[in-house]
Amino acid sequence: MKLIEFCGSKKVYIQTHNFPDPDAIASAYGLQTLLAHYGVPSVLCYHGKIDKLSTRKMTELFHIDIFPYTDFEKEMNAEDYIICVDSQKSGGNILDLEGCEIACIDHHPTYVEENYQYSDIRIVGSCATLIAEYFQKLNVPMTADVATALLYGMKMDTAHFTRGVTLLDIDMFKYLFPKMDEEKMTDLEKNTMEFNDLKAYGSAIENIRVYDNVGIAAIPFECPDSLIALVADFILSLEEVEIAVIYSYRAKEIKFSVRSEMASVHAGKLINRILKGYGNGGGHAEMAGGSISNENIKLLGAYPDDTIRDLFVNAIAEMEGREIRS
What's the pLDDT tens digit per position in 55-114? Predict the structure, then answer.
């Protein structure tokens, strides 16, 4: 595998996106284990916060050591190697660290081209699928913990194999399933929500506005990325909604999560198009995210909620060639 050759004797960091979810954690953990098999040590890192109950449970259950950038920022230098996992440099959801990004393993579409010494960017259901394939192709032994983590990451990112699934995801499910620990998988899938999460759901329910089949809701307080995404999935589950737009006002930004069940509306292209000039965004056809920094919120005018609504409604109407009514 060329990635192993590139690493050489350099200090290697495996970096996830800023608020790592189960797929990001599982992929980083799996890659770390794979590299260790070939004598390449690495450190798992992120910038932001592990803010999801399911992700915290993963790190505890599998004893995964993953560190915030603030723990070692004085130690990292420009010669250290960074492998971006489940994210891409300049993707809008990953901090540009001091080291050199030599590689990228991701399953999201590319919106900003970057040069890596090693790149594996394929549109599949989860990044964990790609890591599992490495184990299979290289015939590297896999522990039950790694198999369980990878399979859980796949299940969470594909909404239990109902979203964005490809044949490779199915093949890797077949490969991982007999290797996993059923008891630990059951433990992971229990109690995935915390009591405080209900506030975000309640706020979205109270503020939602539906325009034909487009549901838009603002959460007027700070929410982590993972919770905004969960609320977007919840709103999308409404019979009347086929496109969900949820955003949260945070200390430094407005954070967006978009979901689409319509083939004519690509969620990633939609958010990328809308936020140009305001912020950045992107993602898959079915799910995407983005943000507007505090400095640019003023560009939305005196009534930002109205501007956000009009931007989304008008863009969706143009993509579908129809008028959207409130």
Answer: 888 999 999 999 999 898 888 999 999 999 999 987 778 888 889 999 999 999 888 889
The CA distances from residue 198 to 64, 79, 202, 315, in Å, are 28, 45, 6, 31
**pLDDT tens track for 256-314:** 999 999 999 999 999 999 999 999 899 889 999 999 999 999 999 999 999 999 999 99
Domains of the chain: residue spans and CATH: 2-188 (3.90.1640.10), 197-320 (3.10.310.40)
Which helix or strand (DSSP H or E) is residue 280 part of?
strand 279-283
* Contact call for residues 272 and 308 (beta carbons, < 8 A): no
**Burial of 302 per CB tally in 10 Å (0-12, 13-18, 19+):** exposed
Kindly report the pTM of this predicted structure: 0.80
66 bridge partner residues: 44
Q: CA torsion sign, 268 to 302 to 318 to 215?
A: positive
Residue 152 exposure: Cα atoms within 13 Å on the Cβ side? 32
Contacts of 275 (CB under 8 A, 6+ apart): 256, 281, 290, 291, 292
